[in-house]
Structure formats: structure tokens, C-alpha cells
Design goal:
Elements lengths: L1 H17 L28 H13 L13 H17 L2 H10 L18 H4 L3 H10 L5 H10 L19 H16 L2 H18 L17 H17 L7 H18 L6 E2 L9 E2 H17 L6 H14 L11 E2 L8 H5 L3 E2 L3 H14 L3
Helix pairs in contact: 2-3, 2-15, 3-4, 3-6, 3-15, 6-7, 6-8, 7-8, 8-9, 8-10, 9-10, 9-11, 10-11, 10-12, 12-13, 12-15
Length: 372
């Protein structure tokens, strides 16, 4: 039963924390993550070299903030990926430097960088201190992350969902990743329950028969990065959600259905398009990185056929690397995009170079490919 599993899990993690250590996400119960598809990389596609370039690129920048001076979600997603990459690469110097970059979480005088706005795009910032805590065992970073995870569930809706629910496909990551990180850090089942409940509700609302997702209930477009947020959210939550959780089967069903849909639409270049099902749309890198990451995780955990989806993920990574320049800037990234019923709106979205929406998924992929 899920209830008995929760109690046992919480006790096990409490013992680990009492001994002064935390769970090492690189050592999963399903063993070595290396598959044939994720070995022998062509020149200029080595995950360690690519990840290092993109992580150093982040360190050379100021914080990405909004008009009020608060750090915004693309910085959160990229910082999260950089910290995870540094740990996977065994680069203690990089990890130390990144921890320093985000020390503002510990500085009361710098708290203006952390927005108090009750919105998914700001709450998700908690994934950075929680990842730092998980990767360094520095307990000072635990509370700032948990504070944001708990704030996300203040005064929930009558159905139990976060009051920040708005039925945008993007929300799956902004909620799911934060709550499952809090679960990893504490073992408290309430965080796993929140993540699973939220994703299951969004699956029921937004996933279509082809496995893909509308941008919103009334926005019938399969926008690339919007779908990417959901793909990554499912991979993140399923990788830590106990298999006997009541929502596990529903999430796995939705995940596999989505991966099958994505596999059918991968372009010959290995990338996916700005509008996934539109052959006239331009290939777009942030969505490609997100889909590739979700498939890497699925192959590594044994959820997906390693031959079919391992090859798909490999082509995605190799294709993506062709869009990363020597300075660690990724090109062909769709800029921030709201919802619109007009197809042309999505096809005409500006393309950016070095936008953090696209930098982050490269780091997630590189970190995952370095897992053993």
C-alpha cells in the first residue's frame, strides 16, 4: 500500500539525513544508466564538454530578472540544470561556484531577488536551493526551497490543486519539478502527492489522443516548448514517485503515450519543430532539448524501449549539439510565448540565441547522459 510505503520511505530518508548524508540521485535502484545509444559520441557532441560550455556561459551573465528585480523562471531552470550537471560531471569547482551564485537565498538583504508573487513562474525558483541541498548536503539551502514549495500550496483550491493552477501546459514543470524536488529532499509524501495530483489533472485536461498537449484548453496548438515542459515534468516526477503511488500508473500511461507521439514527429535532423505537427514550422532547440531529456530518462529507467527511444534520444542530442556555439550559446530558441489561437502567431515567433529557455534543457540532457 502507498501509505505503508510512505512511512517506510520517510523513515529511511530520516536515517540517511541523521547520518549526515543525502540521497545520491546518480545511484538509482535500476542500476547503471549507460546504454549503447549513449556511448561513443561524435566529435563536438561530448556531453561533458557541451555541458561545461553552457554552464560557464551562465556564470558569465548577470541574473535574469524582471522589471522589479526578481529572478525569473528561465534563470531558475538553467541554474538548476547547471548545478545538476556539475554534480554529474564531478566538477567540484563548478559546483562551488554555482552555489556561490545562488547564495542570495541565504542573504536576507538580497531577498528582493526572490519574488513573493503567488505565481508558478516565481515559485519554481525553489528548485535551485533544493538541488544545491541534494547535491552538496548543505542544509542551509533546504529551508528556502521548502518555503517556496509550501507557498505554492497555500490556500489550495477545493479539489486540492494549487491555487496557482491556470491550465497552461507550462505549469506542469513549474509545479511538478518543485514539488518532486521537495519530496527528494525530505521524503515527506505530501510533496509527491501534490506533484502527482497536479500532473494527473493536467493530463486529463490537456493531453490529446495523439499523446501531445494543447497549449491550453482552448488553444489547439501543439507548441513545442509547451509540450517540452510537460515531457520534462513527467520524467522528473516519475523518476522519484514510488511505483505503488495511486497516480503512478496514470502518469506513466500519459508519459508513454506522449513519447510515442513525439517519436512520430521527430524531424530528419533529429530536432522537433516549433509546432510539433506542422512540417512548415522551423526546427526549435528548447523543445528538442526537453523531449530529448525526457527520452533519455525513460530509457535509463527502463520505461521505454532502449533501441527505439535510445536512438531517438541520441539523434536529438546530436542534432541539438549542432546548434551550440563554442561560447556555449544555443541558437534557434523560441522566445517567451503566450497563448494564441492563430497558427501564424506561433510560426512567426522570434528566434533567439542564448535565451535561457533553450540553455537550460541542454544542461539537463548533459547531466542525464553523464549519470551512471
Amino acid at each position: 500500500m502507498w501509505t505503508s510505503f510512505r512511512a517506510a520511505l520517510a523513515l529511511s530518508i530520516a536515517v540517511l539525513l541523521t547520518d549526515g548524508c543525502v540521497l545520491d540521485k546518480g545511484k538509482m535502484v535500476d542500476g547503471d544508466k549507460t546504454t549503447a545509444s549513449f556511448l561513443n559520441w561524435p566529435t563536438n557532441t561530448d556531453p561533458k564538454i557541451i555541458g561545461e560550455a553552457v554552464a560557464r556561459n551562465l556564470l558569465a551573465r548577470d541574473y535574469l530578472t524582471n522589471r522589479t528585480g526578481s529572478v525569473v523562471y528561465p534563470e531558475a531552470c538553467t541554474g538548476f540544470g547547471a548545478v545538476r550537471f556539475a554534480k554529474a560531471a564531478g566538477d567540484s569547482d563548478l559546483l562551488y561556484t554555482l552555489t556561490g551564485r545562488y547564495s542570495f537565498f541565504l542573504n536576507p538583504e538580497a531577498q528582493n531577488l526572490v519574488s513573493t508573487n503567488a505565481h508558478v513562474d516565481f515559485r519554481v525558483l525553489g528548485i535551485i536551493p533544493l538541488e544545491i541541498y541534494l547535491d552538496t548536503a548543505d542544509t542551509k539551502y533546504l529551508k528556502p526551497g521548502l518555503d517556496l514549495a509550501d507557498a505554492q500550496w497555500e490556500n489550495p483550491l477545493p479539489d486540492g490543486l494549487t491555487r496557482e493552477t491556470r491550465w497552461w501546459v507550462d505549469d506542469a514543470f513549474m509545479v511538478g519539478s518543485l514539488q518532486i524536488e521537495a519530496f527528494r529532499a525530505t521524503g515527506d509524501p505530501k510533496y509527491a502527492d501534490r506533484a502527482a495530483m497536479q500532473l494527473a489533472a493536467y493530463l486529463d485536461k490537456l493531453q490529446q489522443t495523439n499523446g501531445l498537449f494543447f497549449h491550453g484548453p482552448d488553444i489547439p496548438h501543439y507548441w513545442g516548448r509547451g509540450n517540452g515542459w510537460f515531457a520534462v515534468a513527467l520524467a522528473e516526477v516519475l523518476s522519484s514517485l514510488p511505483p505503488d503511488h495511486p497516480k503512478y500508473s496514470r502518469l506513466m500511461e500519459g508519459y508513454r503515450k506522449m513519447m510515442a507521439g513525439l517519436r512520430a514527429y521527430q524531424a530528419p535532423s533529429g530536432l522537433w519543430r516549433q509546432l510539433i505537427d506542422n512540417d512548415q514550422a522551423w526546427v526549435e532547440t528548447s523543445s528538442t532539448g526537453m523531449f530529448t531529456y525526457a527520452m533519455i530518462v525513460g530509457v535509463q529507467h527502463g520505461w521505454l524501449d532502449p533501441k527505439e527511444y535510445g536512438d531517438c534520444a541520441r539523434r536529438g542530442w546530436i542534432g541539438l549539439c549542432g546548434y551550440v556555439n563554442p561560447d556555449g550559446n544555443v541558437r534557434e530558441i523560441c522566445v517567451g510565448t503566450g497563448q494564441n489561437k492563430d497558427t501564424q502567431f506561433y510560426l512567426d515567433r522570434p528566434r533567439a540565441v542564448g535565451d535561457l529557455h533553450g540553455q537550460a534543457p541542454v544542461l539537463w540532457c548533459a547531466a542525464a547522459l553523464l549519470q551512471k
